[in-house]
Amino acid sequence: MQPMPTGANARAERPNGTTARPPHDMGTALLINISANLLASAAYVALFVYVVHKGPTRLLNWFCASMLATFAVWSLSFMFFQASPTHDAAMSWLSISSLGWATFPAPALWFFLGFAGRDRLVARPLFLVLSSLPAIAFVYLQWAGHLIVDCARQPYGWSYAWSASSSPLVFVAYYVAYVGAGLFFVYATARTAKLKRIRRQAWLIVISAAVSLALGSVTNVVLPFLSIASVPPVAQVVVLVWASAVAYAIGRYGLMAVTPALAAGAILETMDDAVILAGPDGRVITANRACRELLQYTEPELAGMELEAIAAGHPDGEATSLRAALADQGVRSRTAALLDKAGDRIPVMLGAARIDEDDEPLGVVVTAHDMRDHIAAERALLQGHLGLGPALRGEHGERGQAQVGARRLVRRVRQHLA
Asked: What is the mean pLDDT of residues 357-365?
C-alpha cells in the first residue's frame, strides 16, 4: 500500500479517481459555481417578495411564491453543498436541498392548474394535501439514503451519484408527471384563450418552463445517471429563467387565471355606480372609479378610511353609522347619503352585502347609486316644469287629491328613470 501524499498539494484519492481539495483551495470553477447558486437564491427570494406584493390575497400568487421558495431552498443548499469541505458535509447539504428539488413539482402543479383556471380543484385542501404526499415521501427517501447515495469532489465543487435502486426512477416519473400535466393545461390555455394577453402570458410560461426544466433535467438527472461528472448540476440556477419569465409576465400582463373572479377588478372599474369593498373592521379596502369620482377622493385617500367617515346617515335620521347598518344581513335599496371630500351630502340609493366564508365575515361590499338626478327630476315634476303644474297646484279640487296625483307621477318618473 502506498503512503498517502502529504503537504500543501496533497489530494485524497476517491474510488472514481477524482481528488478531494483542501478547504482553502478554491479554484475559479468552484468560485463561479458557488456565486451562481448564491445569486440564484437571492433572486428567488426577491421574486418571492415581488409576487406576494403583487397579489397578497390571490391564491395563484401564493402558489407561485411557494414554488419560488422551493427554488430558493434548493439553490442556497446547493451553494453550501458545492462549498462543503468534506464528503459527509456535502451529503448532509444534499439531503437538506431535497426540501427544494424533491418538493417543487407540487407547488408548480398548483400554479399551473390555477393559471389554467382550475380554481375549484386547487382550492380544495384535500387536493393540496394529497398532491403533497409524494413530495414528502421523496424527501424522506433522500434522508434515508435511497435517492442520491454518494458524491465526489470535482473542480467545480461536488458531483453526485443516484442510487441503483428503482427509487430515483420513481422520483423522475413523479416530477415529470406533475410538471408535464401542469404544462399541458397551460399549453391548452395558450391555444384556446380568447384574450391575446392571456395567450402571450401562457406561451411565455410554457416555453420558459419547458426549456429550463429540460436543461436542468439533463445536468441534474441524466448526466449523473450516466456517471458523467464533467458538467456541474445547475438545474437550480437554470430554472431562474423560468422564474424570471413568470415575474416578467406578472409585471407586463398581470398574473391572472382565466376566471370571472380575476375579471372582477376590471368590471368594477367600468361600473357607473359607486362600489366600496370594506374589511370586517369597517375600513375601506378599495373603491372603484365611480366611487372616487362621486366622493372626490383619490384611491390612497379612501384606502383605510372608516365607513363612518363617508356616511352621512339616513335622511330620516334613523342610522348614522353605515357599518352598523351593514353588520347583520346587509342593505337592499335603501335611501341614504354619503359625504364627499368637501363635506357635502350626496343622496344615494344604497345597497350592501356581507362577504362570508365558513360562516365568518370577511368584509362587506357596498354599492351606491347617485340619486341627485332622480331627486332633481322629481322636484321639477312637482313644481310643474314638465307641464303638469295645474294638476299639482290643486286645480282639480282637494289638496289630498293633488298629493295622491303627485305620488303617482313620482312613481312614474322613478320607473322611467330606473
From this structure: 67
Distance, C-alpha 120 to centroid of its chain: 15
Q: Which amino acid, 329?
A: Q
pLDDT of 314 strictly over 70: no
- Among residues 164, 169, 163, the alpha carbon closest in space to that of 145 is found at 163
The percent of residues above 90 in pLDDT, for the chain, comes to 41
**CB neighbours of residue 175 within 10 Å:** 23
Determine the angle formed by the axes of helices 196-217 and 105-115, rounding to 10 degrees: 160
pLDDT grade for 90, boundaries at 50, 70 and 90: very high
Q: What is the largest CA-CA distance in the chain?
A: 131
Q: Which three cell numbers stand for residue 149?
A: 447515495
* SS3 of residue 283 by DSSP: strand
Q: What is the pLDDT of residue 6?
A: 39
**Which residues, 6+ apart, have CB-to-CB distance to 231 below 8 Å?**
219, 223
Q: Which helix (H) or strand (E) is 211 found in, with range?
A: helix 196-217
- Calculate the average pLDDT of the chain: 79
Quick: pLDDT tens for 174-222.
Answer: 999 999 999 999 999 888 887 777 888 889 999 999 999 899 999 999 9
Report how far apart, in Å, the C-alpha atoms of 267 and of each of 88, 261, 264, 288 are.
58, 10, 5, 9
Cα 139 from Cα 146, distance rounded (Å): 10
Residue 309 CA to residue 320 CA, distance in Å, equals 10
Query: CA torsion angle for 399, 401, 406, 411 (degrees, to 10)?
Result: 150
Bridge partners of residue 275, in order along the sequence: 367
What backbone torsions phi and psi does residue 27 show, to the nearest 5 degrees? -80, 175
Residue with cell 330606473: 418
